[in-house]
Amino acid sequence: MLRHRTWREKVSAISAISVSPRRRHLGLYYRLYFSNIGQREVCEFLRHLLRHLRGHVIVLLDNAKIHGARQVRQLVARCARLHVEYFPGYAPELNPDEGVWGHAKRALANGQPDDIRALHHEVAATLNRLRRSPRHLRACITHSALPLFLP
Prior knowledge:
By secondary structure, the chain is an alpha+beta fold. Helix content is 40%, strand content 17%. It has a two-stranded antiparallel ribbon with strand order 1-2. A two-stranded parallel ribbon has the order 3-4.
């Protein structure tokens, strides 16, 4: 028996769909990384949202351990306009962001990037196309099991 450890390169992602206060405008924000996402990256992403969104920002997060980590809790405590709510335990059907990743996976299926940089580029291009499609972003929200909050 030969044992072999494999190491695969990967692209990790974090994203959010934004809904304007009057529920007319939708946005998609994301960050891509070449390593695992930890609490530092979650905080970086939340600060990114705060830089780009005005007023109070309500973020719905799943119950991944990194979303409730010490650095994330400290950031939320320091930023008065940042409000975090958590989905119930394992409830991907409530999370509109799952629609983003379902769309991205379908668009990227059967792709064959030459290297990790090409994969990164293809993921970013796919998300940028989705970002420019309010119809698809709206569908991600309306197809989730969240209580309806879009007109």
